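Question (not urgent): is this output format expected?
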Amino acid sequence: MIRKIIFGYIIGFVFSLISIIIFFYFYTKKVTKIVDNIDKQEEMNSIVNAIPTDSEIKLIKVNDLQSVHIKFNGDKVVFLNFWATWCKPCIEELPTVIELYKKNKNTVDFFIISKESNDEIMEYLKAKNIDTQLPFYSLTDSISFINYTSIPRTYIIKNNIIYLSYLGKTNWNHYKITQFIEGLN
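Got this back:
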């Protein structure tokens, strides 16, 4: 009887250990995919990733309704994240975007952008108790030079060059992403 109990504990422990290893394997693969994407973006010819020099995005800042025009020709890194209140992957990755913002708000211009109205965005942010001092914006015009129809979609841009374009949910607060952004500064 005791042998069966000990055997059961051993089987349970081995199963738990295998489950943890599998989880971290796939989590690491996802982060590696992003880092590989970063490496590929750096290797590509910048002309392929260039944004026309006169390009800008017109936005309305959600918390104060201030009109904003983003230009990409400056020396500061720009982090664009397209999301929506109804998009589950967008909502799931939002805490990691917020953490990245808190760490880099002085060196990176963050724009968390939705095509929804200011009222819809504010209502959602208040309902979920999300800090409205964060850089949430409502898109006022269409954009022809980047794709934002599928979300969540994130771009990291500097000097009119898209260094990273990523479609899907990820952990934006991962140390390799932070290192990548620091390398652009």
